[in-house]
């Protein structure tokens, strides 16, 4: 389900009246195939999509031509081919279409930031918008609907839509009486719905057939009927659908992209093509957003730059700040850094028609004190530096030590991004020697040592022989006894294969220092004849199976 | 150095030379220097570009220790941050700074921020950004090999940034090659055999280094390029009996 239900409270506090736009895109599946396949787009033959269901090939989507030729999803492929010579058919790829439809929905957020896919009848076909308070940007509801339909028409997508005070009514009108704008009263009374067939209520198949047995074919007839009778015959769900359509029970749509309470945007009459132009606009938007936030007394920790391309693609850049901010130049710079990183991937397509800058994770922020007595310890500068670095290099690239409350010393310290990590806790302190540099993955070494647990006398590490003149240890670091056997075996350290070692992970930085913990290791500090001090450990004991293995784990100064 | 006037004239001259060379004066009077030696080896002024060379990558522990020891002396309440930077794919070569080890060494880990970049240009960008922040005391960067991009022009840029921002840069370099650079100081650092622990001479003791100043001039008691043996005991300690005596004897 893509929405949740709440009762509209009819108490003293009146709910603000909401307005919903529903778009119905009946031929979206075939339109999408045509966009990705030129030969289909240029062909004048009807197109159907089929799906293998059990052993039959059933039609699941048709385009406008095929529909005109009398084809529908009740048929199977053989029947359709017999009826329409020269029919083109493709097998449907549902995961692809659903993902593409989701992208399409994101892009449509240019019209309103709250967009949801409504999968009630088909997974791709209907979209719901909460357009409360945004229609004035287009010059009214009628104009907004016309504008959205016009833009979709430009990219070859046939759509119809309607606006009313409930999702249910908008859905019904979009399908059966497109381009209707229903007022709040009309929605509540159901008068605009009266002439529509009962199928417009998003009912189940059985409910529709029971209603037609009763001779009820239009919604108007149902509205006059005794509710209790209908409820007894058709179930609770029918009554809920009816109330939803009239806006007596509110439906909340679950938006696909995070809803930003504060956003500013700019539309362009002539689409932009250059990243530099987008950045210029961003500078301007950052100023406007900053002053909006200032007026509201807020700061934000996340900022999203949404770039709407003419050909339904939404590029979204997000940056995080180490602490809430509303400084325009800082926000601007974060996006410049991020854009620099992405410049290779930037693709304006056929042009950019709108840029929106939104702020989320808002928190109250006092107006900054700028007098000479203001406390200024430079931490603000430091946080801004963290933000700039994280936005350009990625948040995983700028790290600080975080302490974990455990007695296992090598698990006790990890690295976490500065922009998300909590403030550091103080570390209790460790008397035993610890390396100043730790290898992210311990490396297997060959060691000669006295059996059973004498200190190492020499080792071969990275094909070089080291002779140790001093050593201390062992320090035993035990297993985590509270983990069960399975978890321990999962975490048992396996020596990395030699070819892995020479090409360290370039794909994803490994930021957690040593995530595997193994049962019982004996650590030694060994100093070679050149004064180099190493942190080594032996896993396992001599005289036990399997034979103990030695690993190099870190360097002391 | 007799009269105060002469002393003053000398100071002024030093400042002028420093201004011409765009390098903050290193020289402080002998007494000041002696006082600070324990805390930060030579208590070099902030805002300098240092190169810390070690012949082999396996000495990485020693160079990081030396740089951190120098950087620690630059931390002030209004300049609390030290950055360690390196290329992400070289982490496994030399390891990453490790909190408990820093703590043991006497460097509070909360002062250290790690930056791991994908490419050398990003690394240089990050160094410059950090240098222009007034809360940063020092930047320590691990640079393996001899990247082409790190030429004289770039090192000049870094040294100017360091001077104007007031933070120091320590470039930890590996290998024996020395390309032209605008670094004010170039150190050659190698680990030295420790003295062992007080009650157990067979156990490795405090960190120790063999230090050679290859480039740059220090004034005061140690007023020439030279070599020293340093050890670490909650701060740098010169093995005064050996090297300083030798320095002075040579002088």
UniProtKB/TrEMBL annotation, chain B:
Protein name listed in UniProt: Uncharacterized protein
Organism: Paradevosia tibetensis
């Amino acid at each position: 389900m893509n929405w949740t239900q709440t009762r509209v409270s009819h108490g003293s506090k009146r709910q603000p009246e909401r307005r919903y736009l529903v778009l119905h895109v009946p031929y979206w599946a075939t339109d999408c195939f045509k966009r990705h396949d030129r030969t289909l787009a240029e062909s004048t033959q009807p197109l159907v999509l089929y799906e293998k269901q059990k052993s039959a090939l059933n039609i699941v989507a048709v385009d406008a031509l095929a529909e005109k030729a009398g084809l529908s999803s009740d048929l199977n492929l053989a029947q359709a081919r017999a009826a329409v010579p020269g029919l083109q058919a493709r097998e449907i790829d549902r995961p692809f279409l659903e993902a593409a439809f989701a992208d399409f929905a994101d892009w449509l957020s240019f019209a309103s930031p709250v967009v949801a896919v409504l999968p009630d009848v088909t997974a791709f076909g209907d979209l719901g918008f909460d357009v409360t308070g945004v229609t004035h940007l287009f010059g009214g509801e009628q104009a907004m609907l016309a504008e959205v339909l016009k833009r979709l028409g430009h990219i070859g997508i046939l759509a119809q839509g309607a606006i009313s005070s409930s999702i249910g009514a908008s859905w019904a009108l979009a399908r059966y009486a497109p381009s209707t704008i229903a007022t709040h009263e009309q929605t509540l009374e159901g008068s605009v719905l009266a002439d529509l067939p009962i199928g417009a209520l998003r009912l189940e198949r059985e409910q529709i057939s029971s209603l037609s047995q009763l001779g009820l074919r239009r919604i108007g007839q149902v509205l006059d009927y005794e509710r209790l009778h209908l409820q007894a015959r058709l179930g609770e769900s029918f009554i809920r659908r009816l109330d939803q359509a009239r806006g007596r029970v509110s439906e909340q749509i679950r938006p696909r992209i995070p809803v930003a309470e504060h956003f500013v945007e700019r539309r362009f009459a002539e689409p932009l093509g250059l990243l530099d132009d987008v950045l210029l606009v961003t500078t301007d938007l950052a100023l406007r957003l900053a002053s909006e936030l200032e007026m509201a007394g807020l700061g934000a920790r996340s900022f999203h730059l949404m770039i709407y391309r003419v050909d339904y693609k939404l590029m979204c850049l997000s940056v995080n700040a180490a602490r809430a901010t509303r400084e325009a130049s800082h926000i601007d710079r974060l996006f410049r850094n991020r854009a620099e990183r992405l410049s290779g991937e930037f693709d304006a397509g056929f042009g950019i028609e709108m840029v929106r800058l939104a702020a989320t994770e808002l928190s109250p922020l006092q107006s900054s004190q700028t007098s000479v007595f203001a406390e200024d310890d430079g931490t603000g500068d430091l946080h801004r530096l963290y933000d700039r670095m994280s936005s350009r290099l990625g948040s995983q690239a700028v790290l600080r030590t975080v302490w974990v409350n455990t007695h296992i010393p090598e698990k006790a310290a990890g690295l976490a991004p500065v922009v998300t990590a909590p403030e550091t806790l103080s570390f209790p302190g460790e008397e035993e020697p610890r390396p100043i540099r730790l290898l992210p993955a311990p490396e297997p070494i060959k060691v000669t040592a006295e059996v059973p647990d004498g200190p190492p006398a020499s080792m071969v590490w990275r094909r070089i022989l080291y002779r140790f003149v001093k050593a201390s240890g062992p320090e035993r670091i035990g297993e985590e006894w509270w983990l069960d056997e399975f978890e321990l075996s999962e975490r048992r350290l396996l020596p990395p294969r030699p070819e892995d070692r020479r090409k360290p992970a370039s794909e994803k930085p490994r930021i957690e220092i040593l995530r595997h913990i193994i049962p019982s290791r004996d650590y030694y500090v060994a100093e070679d004849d050149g004064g180099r001090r190493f942190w080594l450990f032996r896993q396992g004991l001599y005289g036990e199976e399997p034979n103990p293995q030695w690993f190099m784990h870190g360097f002391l100064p | 150095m007799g009269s105060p006037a002469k002393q003053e004239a000398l100071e002024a001259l030093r400042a002028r030379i420093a201004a011409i060379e765009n390098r903050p004066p290193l020289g402080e009077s002998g007494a000041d220097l002696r006082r600070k030696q324990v805390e930060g080896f030579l208590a070099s002024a902030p805002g300098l570009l240092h190169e810390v060379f070690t012949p082999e990558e396996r000495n990485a522990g020693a160079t990081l220790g030396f740089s951190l020891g120098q950087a620690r002396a630059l931390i002030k309440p209004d300049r609390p941050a030290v950055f360690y930077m390196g290329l992400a794919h070289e982490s496994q070569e030399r390891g990453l700074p490790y909190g408990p080890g820093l703590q043991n060494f006497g460097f509070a880990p909360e002062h250290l921020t790690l930056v791991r970049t994908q490419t050398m240009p990003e690394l240089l960008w990050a160094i410059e950004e950090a240098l222009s922040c007034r809360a940063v005391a020092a930047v320590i960067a691990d640079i393996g090999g001899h990247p082409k991009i790190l030429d004289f022009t770039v090192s000049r840029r870094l040294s100017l940034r360091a001077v104007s921002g007031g933070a120091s840069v320590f470039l930890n370099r590996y290998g024996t090659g020395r390309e032209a650079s605008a670094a004010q100081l170039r150190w050659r650092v190698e680990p030295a055999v420790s003295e062992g622990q007080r009650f157990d001479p067979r156990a490795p003791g405090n960190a120790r280094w063999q230090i050679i100043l290859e480039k740059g001039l220090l004034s005061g008691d140690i007023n020439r390029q030279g070599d020293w043996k340093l050890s670490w005991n909650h701060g740098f300690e010169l093995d005064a009996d050996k090297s300083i005596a030798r320095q002075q004897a040579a002088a």
